[in-house]
Amino acid sequence: MADSRFFKCNGPFKAHELADIASAELVGDKDALITDVASIDQATSEQVSFLDNRKYVKAFTKSKAGLCLVHPEVADKAPEGMSLLVTAEPYMGYAKIASTFYPVTFPKAKISERANISETATIADGVIIEAGAYVGENVIIGKGTWIKSNAVLGDGVTVGENCIIHPNVTLSHTIISNGVTIHPGCQIGQDGFGFASGAQGHVRIPQLGRVLIGDHVNIGAATTIDRGAGPDTVIGAGTQIDNIVQIGHNVQIGMGCVIVSHVGISGSTKLGNFVVVGGQAGVAGHLEIGDSVVIAAKAGVMRNVEAGQTVGGFPAIPQWKWLRQVGMIEKLTRGKK
Amino acid sequence: MADSRFFKCNGPFKAHELADIASAELVGDKDALITDVASIDQATSEQVSFLDNRKYVKAFTKSKAGLCLVHPEVADKAPEGMSLLVTAEPYMGYAKIASTFYPVTFPKAKISERANISETATIADGVIIEAGAYVGENVIIGKGTWIKSNAVLGDGVTVGENCIIHPNVTLSHTIISNGVTIHPGCQIGQDGFGFASGAQGHVRIPQLGRVLIGDHVNIGAATTIDRGAGPDTVIGAGTQIDNIVQIGHNVQIGMGCVIVSHVGISGSTKLGNFVVVGGQAGVAGHLEIGDSVVIAAKAGVMRNVEAGQTVGGFPAIPQWKWLRQVGMIEKLTRGKK
Amino acid sequence: MADSRFFKCNGPFKAHELADIASAELVGDKDALITDVASIDQATSEQVSFLDNRKYVKAFTKSKAGLCLVHPEVADKAPEGMSLLVTAEPYMGYAKIASTFYPVTFPKAKISERANISETATIADGVIIEAGAYVGENVIIGKGTWIKSNAVLGDGVTVGENCIIHPNVTLSHTIISNGVTIHPGCQIGQDGFGFASGAQGHVRIPQLGRVLIGDHVNIGAATTIDRGAGPDTVIGAGTQIDNIVQIGHNVQIGMGCVIVSHVGISGSTKLGNFVVVGGQAGVAGHLEIGDSVVIAAKAGVMRNVEAGQTVGGFPAIPQWKWLRQVGMIEKLTRGKK
């Protein structure tokens, strides 16, 4: 059971309700009462779990979970007495079921007296603004959005509906759509790193663009996104960005991308849709990365990458080639001391 | 036109005024009225643009910009009807012209009642301190400086004139000169990562130095700069530091350096003047990096580097050698499967 | 002498007192009065220094320090007139002596009226809470702990005794033990990066665990630690984490580890005790890293590492092998242009 100091469990639910939520086929008692989610090895007869990885099949055969999400191919390995929710996507089913037991719950609408809110701000119904938050001139905040303590929304910023802006975030020059979550300590909309260099030193170029964030984007803690120099910096709908990521000015990121922590995307580079960028990778500027590209962890991408490719290494090349190089280098040094 | 929610355009200006600002030679109507800046492909007849990169010469020949900064060598390619500002430094000229159309404008002096300011702080004329900012004991803030919401200036910190300290910055044990910008979420002056390790665990060494930041330094978002252990950590005048950079204790950085995002400079390393460090590079501790060195992106510098060298790879070697190694490794694995 | 705007020197002390503190053998006048610490090359006759590195033996022979911590093996190189504190661990001795001259001093207990503190919070004696700090529902803060300006403690968070939570930190879903320091701008306890991906996009998995931080842990600036997905994310006692580190969900870190800046530890990986991870290294998920492993800077660890091993490179291999590979690659390209 999740720590009740931090999590409130919304169960119980009947097995058939969970089958509907997960779009899964129920094999077992439809009225069985399920009180919570749990992992395969921890779950009891009143809890629901999931099997998503062949590595855990053995644990699955010994599991005491009363109900379990499984792929059709492994359903026959279920232990005696376990009811099943059979689905081709057990992990997705688990995401939906766990979100039903533990939904993100917003507090009641409330504007703290100790928030610092400009008179020119427009705040819709159902908005929560906590003490210490700062809301600048002409800011617009949409229905149901939650601005947490000590977040700072600079002049003119717009935030859509049902967003969560966590503490210690700074937003400036930014327009955010609906259902967006910005995790704590993010810094979004500041100057891009642009300057002209000459005998008199480095002279900053005014960055005259904005940051545009699409629906249902989720941005990790302490991530930084610079506004555009004239074009905008754009994050497409549904994209998931992890912690400590840097997005440079004028970058355009498509829909449904996944960008893991410590990644840097240099200025003016364009990512298509559903691109995955592994942890600590870097992408040089002014590049085009096609749809569904996978960039391996720690890669250094210096050239355009065509749609559907998987690249790795530095300079990044097709991943299979990089693995060959690694193998070749190992052979060359094998046995020598 | 830049989004007027965020940017206020200070035009129009006459062509000859812009020629003066950019120190460029005007070819065309000196009284032509220019209302805004724009990119080569977007600009209209009342806007000024610039050509800085041979890649865009084609777009230049078709551009509708009324006025354009160009290098003498490409001036002859200008389309009919376009006036020119001819200069050997078109990008620098653009920086100055764009800054004239869109200057950084400070608000009127104002100390918010909802800032938390120690009575022992000394605050000069023209200072702006926003709600939620914290100003500790004996802090000194110079003329015209702007402390934004929720920034925290610890006891004894000194900030010079005409600085901007963005939201959610923490400064401690730090002395800042004039004209410095610290972007949101920077953490400056905290303990360096110093400790003695033994049977009883890790015992922290008191870090008895400070951070000294020179005139016109610009530090990116969520960058961290540790104070010195006894010596100071020093950032030289005019240096530009990007986001998510880590500067370790006792590091000395010269003047006019450029440090790109995700770089780590380990403790006690010394960079000369005009050093450029590419994104995600790392420099080991106790090293000396000479003037005008260029460290390529993702490099790992383990030895001193002499002035004027360009190094790359890990361990870092002269960049041309690293490129040779990359080529050699590619040859070795070519055609094999 | 350390800058008195920032540091208060608690001396003087007699030589024999310092010998006790450092568990060192005094050779010289036991009543000599020592006023401060200093480096070997700067110290005067009333100051104590230390020699820890053969590189500085020459400076040691010319040093004017009145008292110096030295290893027995180099004691005979001491200049005329210098008293010695002879110990096998001169750096540890210096840590303790410097901490005696410059202890971390907490202010008097005080709860600022301008802190935002929930009525349901439980705050022990001796606690300091500065203006702008936010303390959520049912938070528990132990004796003597110092919550600095603009830090945010989310609902249910527990902090032990004698901790320091620096400005602009966000804590949520976190339980902290005693004597812990969290440096400015840390973000701890937010959602782990977990989601199921399918035709409808990425659906976040509720992260139902917490972050547990052991006694005397020290976490650097702008570091991010995600809470667990159901298990907890755990940081063992005495571990030292540098700036801009990312710790993924469900990670378990043992006791006394050292994690240098820009490191990323991916989800569900387990580090034993006394593991050292060099700057900018990355460790893939679901791995086991044994006790006392050393991971070199910039390494990319893709497999389990047995206790006591030193690994480097990407993919990480035994460090001696990686050095061989570096040498081999250099030979292959030597002399070619």
TrEMBL record, chains A, B, C:
Record-linked PROSITE patterns: HEXAPEP_TRANSFERASES (PS00101)
InterPro entries associated with the record: Hexapep, Hexapep_transf_CS, LpxD, Trimer_LpxA-like_sf, UDP_GlcNAc_AcTrfase_non-rep
GO process annotations (BP): lipid A biosynthetic process
UniProt-listed Enzyme Commission number(s): 2.3.1.191
Domain of life: Bacteria
CDD domains: LbH_LpxD
The UDP-3-O-[3-hydroxymyristoyl] glucosamine N-acyltransferase non-repeat region domain, residue ranges: 31-98
Pathway: Bacterial outer membrane biogenesis; LPS lipid A biosynthesis
Record's GO cellular component terms: membrane
Catalyzed chemical reaction(s): a UDP-3-O-[(3R)-3-hydroxyacyl]-alpha-D-glucosamine + a (3R)-hydroxyacyl-[ACP] = a UDP-2-N,3-O-bis[(3R)-3-hydroxyacyl]-alpha-D-glucosamine + holo-[ACP] + H(+)
Entry-linked Pfam families: Hexapep, LpxD
Function: Catalyzes the N-acylation of UDP-3-O-acylglucosamine using 3-hydroxyacyl-ACP as the acyl donor. Is involved in the biosynthesis of lipid A, a phosphorylated glycolipid that anchors the lipopolysaccharide to the outer membrane of the cell.
Family from the record: Belongs to the transferase hexapeptide repeat family. LpxD subfamily.
Stored HAMAP family: LpxD
Protein's recorded name: UDP-3-O-acylglucosamine N-acyltransferase
Organism: Candidatus Terasakiella magnetica
